[in-house]
């Protein structure tokens, strides 16, 4: 299947506003055909022009010249001749894109004199090029066939061979001459139209994507507030009930004296935490693994986004009654729409980038006017600076990063507040003098064993830790955002303290027999 058809199919699946700003691939192909006709009108077939532009030095005798092999009459041969190299460039300092050819006048005269049947050879080359164009453009409805060849007397080379001819319709040498270097300057009007269309399309696409990014960030901010309101912490979800303590509450002698209400009557905190956990684990658009770190392919992103939606449904997170607040369901739909929007932008950017690569490659192949595909020189006009950017900048990556920085941190993750020794929630956290944090029970056990070094930095900070090392502010935070985990941890700590007391009394807590003291 031709790329233009594949490209059209990709665009059909995108929202209308993205389709309208896509690269006009078929129109650009038609303009390439126009460029070929314009070059043929000067007697410059792609093969001949390619030799003028790309030929290498044949031997040391050609110091500043290049060798060009010219096809002549059947049965004859002409050895390679040395000609100065032609230059394809853009007019410097112009506010417009103005490509031009600079060819030394001596080169054109030598070419003209060497072609005893040159016009017929050029005509045959043009016919072959036109046939090739007809094959490529047969898929385009209403495409103009490239069979309108310039008459033999209407080429630049013919005019150079016949400077005094008054043949009707002949092309006189009226194009600009560079008197200092005796060069013929050929403005390429059709080529300018090609690059102008490419430039304007890229500019419109860039402006549209900037507005898309701005709208995405605004929607993301609104969604963040909506989820923050529906995933309320424990203290704000209980109307009129204050927390059991505050950051400056008095120090407690025993952890079991702290009581936590684990009920969240007006909050979807735990539902959102599970949804975000599934989303992070899915790694829809980017991988953080060392083996395949970086952006995922379009197909893999589609598959993983579908997998995430399936897991959310299978776990019953969208089941009737799962959400306690109505805005949570609306927020989930908006979150999925944001991810679909990133997927569409990824499709758009990849399709546009490939279309640019293909059309520039086709431009080089059909016209012999070569442009670098992996970077432009200092001679390239600034109006075309967007071309390399379309392949280097990833808007989907920036949007995914915005989700990770703005939305996901709204729900604190349990792993960020766990004790590195027991891997459970570090409730009633003890912050050592070295700055590292562990749960109280793990530190008590280390002190009883006489282990005085911090498990992380080996600083002698464990044995000197006391009640003043309790981080009450963080403890309040954990009670607010992890009420169920904090309640379970307190219950486990209470049981562990009781078991220690029984063992100190010589009683096995695992013994089910009743002992009467």
From TrEMBL:
Pfam families: SPX (PF03105), zf-C3HC4 (PF00097). PANTHER family: RING FINGER PROTEIN 127 (PTHR23327), TRANSCRIPTIONAL REGULATOR OF YEAST FORM ADHERENCE 3 (PTHR23327:SF51). GO terms for molecular function: zinc ion binding. This is RING-type domain-containing protein. PROSITE patterns: SPX, ZF_RING_1, ZF_RING_2. Residues 1-377 form the SPX domain. Keywords: Metal-binding, Zinc, Zinc-finger. It comes from Agaricus bisporus var. burnettii (strain JB137-S8 / ATCC MYA-4627 / FGSC 10392) (White button mushroom). InterPro entries: SPX_dom, Znf_C3HC4_RING-type, Znf_RING, Znf_RING/FYVE/PHD, Znf_RING_CS.
């Amino acid at each position: 299947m031709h790329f233009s058809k594949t490209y059209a199919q990709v665009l059909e699946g995108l929202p209308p506003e993205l389709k309208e700003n896509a690269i006009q691939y078929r129109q650009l192909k038609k303009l390439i055909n126009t460029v070929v006709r314009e070059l043929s009108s000067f007697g410059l077939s792609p093969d001949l022009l390619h030799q003028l532009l790309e030929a290498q030095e044949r031997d040391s005798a050609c110091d500043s010249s290049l060798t060009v092999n010219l096809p002549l009459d059947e049965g004859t041969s002409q050895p390679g001749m040395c000609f100065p190299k032609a230059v394809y460039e853009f007019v410097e300092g112009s506010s417009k894109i103005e490509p031009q050819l600079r060819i030394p006048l001596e080169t054109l005269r030598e070419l003209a004199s060497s072609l005893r049947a040159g016009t017929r050879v050029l005509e045959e080359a043009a016919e072959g090029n036109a046939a090739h164009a007809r094959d490529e453009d047969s898929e385009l409805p209403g495409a103009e066939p490239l069979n309108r060849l310039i008459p033999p007397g209407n080429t630049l080379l013919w005019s150079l061979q016949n400077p005094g001819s008054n043949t009707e319709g002949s092309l006189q040498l009226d194009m600009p001459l560079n008197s200092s270097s005796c060069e013929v300057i050929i403005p390429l009007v059709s080529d300018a139209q090609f690059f102008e269309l490419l430039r304007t399309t890229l500019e419109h696409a860039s402006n549209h994507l900037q507005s898309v990014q701005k709208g995405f960030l605004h929607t993301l901010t609104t969604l963040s507030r909506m989820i923050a309101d529906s995933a309320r912490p424990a203290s704000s979800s209980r109307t009129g009930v204050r927390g059991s303590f505050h950051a400056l509450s008095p120090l407690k002698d025993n952890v079991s004296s702290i009581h936590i209400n684990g009920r969240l009557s007006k909050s979807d905190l735990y539902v959102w935490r599970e949804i975000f956990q599934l989303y992070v684990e899915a790694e829809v658009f980017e991988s953080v693994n060392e083996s395949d770190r970086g952006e995922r392919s379009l197909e893999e992103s589609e598959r993983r986004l579908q997998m995430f939606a399936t897991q959310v449904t299978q776990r019953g997170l969208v089941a009737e009654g799962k959400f306690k607040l109505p805005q949570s369901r609306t927020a989930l739909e908006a979150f999925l729409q944001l991810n679909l929007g990133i997927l569409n932008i990824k499709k758009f950017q990849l399709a546009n980038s490939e279309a640019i690569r293909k059309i520039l490659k086709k431009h080089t192949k059909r016209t012999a006017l070569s442009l670098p595909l992996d970077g432009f020189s200092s001679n390239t006009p600034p109006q075309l600076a967007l071309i390399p950017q379309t392949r280097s900048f990833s808007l989907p990556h920036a949007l995914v990063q915005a989700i990770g920085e703005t939305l996901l941190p709204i729900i604190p993750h349990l792993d960020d507040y766990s004790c590195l020794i027991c891997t459970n929630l570090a409730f009633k956290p003890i912050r050592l003098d070295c700055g590292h944090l562990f749960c109280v029970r793990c530190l008590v056990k280390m002190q009883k064993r006489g282990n005085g070094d911090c498990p992380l930095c080996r600083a002698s900070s464990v044995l000197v830790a006391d009640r003043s090392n309790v981080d009450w502010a963080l403890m309040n935070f954990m009670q607010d955002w992890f009420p169920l985990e904090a309640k379970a941890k307190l219950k486990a700590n209470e049981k562990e303290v009781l078991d220690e007391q029984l063992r100190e009394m010589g009683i096995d807590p695992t013994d089910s027999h009743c002992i009467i003291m």
